[in-house]
């Protein structure tokens, strides 16, 4: 590495690629697997790659538009095959390294930055757009749950209001019926008295 300060970040970014074996053909892959199984080492990552392939030339337009280093820029190796595998399998040229989370966050979520796959802090934390999307989805789901809950409360309030209006209407009808009944009962004796006078 160009600087030991990036060792944790590079390890996080490259993951299993740094532990992988690179072979030239499937025959070598089978031989290596056989050797590994004889010593009960079954979790072996083996990559078949063309060793004659020259070092990949990455056009400037395909590199991240930032001053921060990438995983590929801090790895020093004379072996073109190793560097090519890191590019082909791990996109090391698009994995950007930053000192801390705040710098990484502003870099990862800045729409003007192009060709950035992931951002890693010097202590190995990954900041990626996928994580931000997941965070926003969780937030949206929470808002949706609140909306459904509030709509349920609103529906209950509307129903309660309708029930109350119906009770008021029923009470008005009962009151009018009682008033009419009272008026009739008050008028009957008077009418009866008038009829008995004649």
Automatic annotation (TrEMBL):
UniProt-recorded Gene Ontology molecular function terms: ATP binding; damaged DNA binding; single-stranded DNA binding
Q: Out of the domains of life, which is the source?
A: Eukaryota
**Localization per Swiss-Prot or TrEMBL:** Chromosome; Nucleus
A biological process (GO) of this protein is: double-strand break repair via homologous recombination
Which keywords does the record carry? ATP-binding, Chromosome, Coiled coil, DNA damage, DNA recombination, DNA repair, Nucleotide-binding, Nucleus
Q: What Gene Ontology terms describe where this protein resides (cellular component)?
A: nucleus; site of double-strand break; Smc5-Smc6 complex
Record keywords: Protease included? no
| PANTHER family tied to this protein | STRUCTURAL MAINTENANCE OF CHROMOSOMES 5,6 SMC5, SMC6, STRUCTURAL MAINTENANCE OF CHROMOSOMES PROTEIN 6
This one is known as SMC hinge domain-containing protein
According to its UniProt entry, this protein's organism is Aegilops tauschii subsp. strangulata (Goatgrass)
């Amino acid at each position: 590495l160009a600087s030991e300060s990036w060792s944790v970040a590079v390890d996080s970014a490259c993951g299993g690629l740094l532990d992988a074996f690179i072979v030239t053909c499937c025959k070598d892959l089978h031989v290596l697997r056989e050797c590994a199984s004889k010593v009960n080492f079954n979790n072996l990552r083996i990559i078949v790659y063309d060793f004659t392939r020259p070092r990949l030339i990455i056009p400037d337009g395909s590199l991240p538009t930032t001053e921060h280093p990438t995983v590929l820029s801090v790895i020093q190796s004379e072996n073109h095959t190793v560097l090519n595998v890191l590019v082909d399998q791990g996109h090391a040229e698009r994995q950007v390294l930053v000192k801390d989370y705040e710098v990484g966050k502003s870099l990862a979520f800045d729409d003007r930055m192009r060709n950035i796959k992931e951002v890693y802090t010097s202590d190995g934390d990954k900041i990626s757009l996928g994580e931000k999307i997941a965070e926003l989805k969780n937030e949206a789901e929470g808002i949706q749950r609140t909306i459904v809950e509030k709509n349920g409360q609103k529906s209950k309030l509307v129903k309660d209001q309708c029930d109350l209006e119906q009770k008021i209407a029923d009470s008005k009808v009962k009151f009018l019926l009682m008033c009419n009944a009272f008026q009739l009962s008050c008028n009957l004796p008077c009418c009866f008295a008038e009829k008995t006078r004649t």
